[in-house]
Write a structure and sequence with these properties.
This protein has 328 residues and is mainly α. 73% of the residues lie in helices and 0% in strands.
Length: 328
């Protein structure tokens, strides 16, 4: 496969997963802000941090807007100068799919195109003003349709490997940042910092930890495994290390490693990409060996920061070693 096609396939997967994750996070936070006993900034500031656009948001709106629900939502939904906004992510996914029409199936292209046209039309903005949660739900369902069609209508060959490699690396970064930021915020609010007091508002605390699970689509899987009480430690252990949950850090890192092995087999030492593959293998081994139940808050933060940094380096290594582009 030529590098141009591989690059578009990789970034199609990343942008589609980014759009799904952003829509889900906005939907969950919108509901959380209505029900939770948190300040507006505690609810909305984590979104711009998780999505990696804090500097851009501060430059555009200032620190006082971090607790402004409307400005955060519009920045993450419609801002044309925000690469993580739903408008930009769906547009970038569409452009990458259009550039490899000979690779993606007709169904994938049509669904991707319809998603962008839905987001970009004037009527949708009026619908968003009336029902933002319904809008986010529609975007989530459409992105999930596209991702499902990839697996069910395309050849399972190297092109799909590059798409799914992009999906998994984007997903692990999103989950790690979300868990790090939200776990810190909720633990601080409810006294689960090391040495902190026990919260007196157990029902509210439980609802907030469950909202973190919903932000990762992990509410039902968590309850099927954990029949006891909900705590910050249990949620962190699940989202970090549960090998059966497709959005956990462990699952995503291992799946990304398998996809990269399919693209660049470990025994083919003459092929480029060996350093990146080795780096991903080390990350996979380290995450598999972590005992999430024994992690304190500081150790969890260090692990998640390491994951985010390593994923960024791995993505850069893929661009440089395999694609020869160095695209960021």
């Amino acid at each position: 496969m030529i590098s141009r096609v591989a690059d578009h396939a990789f970034w199609y997967g990343r942008y589609m997963e980014r759009a799904e994750s952003t829509a889900r996070l906005l939907q969950v936070t919108h509901n959380l802000a209505l029900d939770a006993e948190l300040s507006p900034e505690q609810c909305w500031r984590p979104i711009v941090i998780v999505c990696g656009v804090e500097k851009a948001f501060l430059a555009a709106h200032g620190a006082e807007a971090m607790g402004d629900r409307e400005r955060v939502q519009r920045f993450m939904t419609w801002a044309e100068d925000n690469g993580a906004s739903l408008l930009c992510s769906t547009g970038a996914a569409r452009e990458n799919a259009r550039s490899i029409r000979e690779v993606v199936s007709l169904e994938v292209w049509e669904s991707t195109n319809e998603l962008y046209l839905f987001v970009d039309r004037d009527e949708t903005r009026a619908e968003y003003d009336r029902d933002p949660v319904g809008f986010y739900r529609h975007v989530r369902q459409s992105t999930q349709l596209c991702l499902g069609l990839l697996r069910s209508t395309m050849l399972h060959d190297i092109a799909l490997d590059f798409v799914w490699l992009g999906v998994m690396l984007e997903r692990v970064g999103q989950t790690a940042r979300l868990l790090d930021v939200q776990h810190h915020a909720l633990a601080s609010a409810f006294g689960e910092e090391e040495g902190g007091p026990v919260s007196r508002y157990a029902s509210v605390e439980t609802a907030l930890w469950l909202s973190l699970l919903r932000a990762c689509s992990g509410f039902e899987p968590f309850l099927k495994i954990r029949h006891g009480g909900v705590s910050g430690g249990a949620v962190a252990e699940f989202l970090l290390g549960e090998p059966r949950f497709p959005r956990s850090v462990r699952y995503c890192v291992h799946s990304a490693y398998e996809r990269l092995c399919a693209i660049r087999p470990p025994d083919q030492t003459s092929l480029p990409g060996g350093a990146t593959l080795a780096r991903l293998a080390r990350l996979d081994t380290r995450i598999a060996g972590v005992d999430g139940a024994s992690l304190g808050h500081v150790e969890l933060h260090q692990i998640l920061t390491h994951v985010v940094d390593e994923v960024a380096q791995i993505c850069n290594g893929i661009s440089v070693e395999l694609l020869g582009l160095g695209r960021g």
